[in-house]
Amino acid sequence: MTVKAILAQKGHDVFTIGPDEKLDEAVRILAGHRVGALVVTNADKAVVGIVSERDVVRVLAKQGAAAFQMPVRKMMTSKVKSCHESHTVNEIMEIMTAGRFRHIPVEKDGRLHGIISIGDVVKRRIEDAEREAEDIKAYIATA
């Protein structure tokens, strides 16, 4: 299965924030939409960073409540690993495992096109395993 197939099922909606927005706005969006990360984009919808719940916890531990007024650009991860629609689930798993992160933006033509979470990857792997088991059962039943 590819990233393109995952996005075809789940959609291309991504919650974003601008780099100059304050952390309190990022926290409001994260909590309000019950998501674990926001992709930071510029005016052209190009990915310039990502801010996750982990990033929020780290900056709050260092800065305390004053962090809520800091711009997102000061705490975001700016070296973002991204993927494309042609990546496979296995490739995405390898990238996420190596980088120790749970969200990866999908880019197309230099712009944000979607996002894949570790939950999306696990769900697709389970579906593939179940489908394979059913195929094997059907094969054995007809043999």
Automatic annotation (TrEMBL):
Listed InterPro entries: CBS_dom, CBS_dom_sf, CBSX3_CBS_dom, Diverse_CBS-Domain
Pfam families: CBS
Assigned keywords, A-Z: CBS domain
Ranges of residues in domain CBS: 8-66, 76-131
Gene3D superfamilies cross-referenced by the UniProt entry: CBS-domain
Family matches, as SUPFAM superfamilies: CBS-domain pair
Record-linked PANTHER family: CBS DOMAIN-CONTAINING PROTEIN, CBS DOMAIN-CONTAINING PROTEIN CBSX3, MITOCHONDRIAL
Name of this chain's protein: CBS domain-containing protein
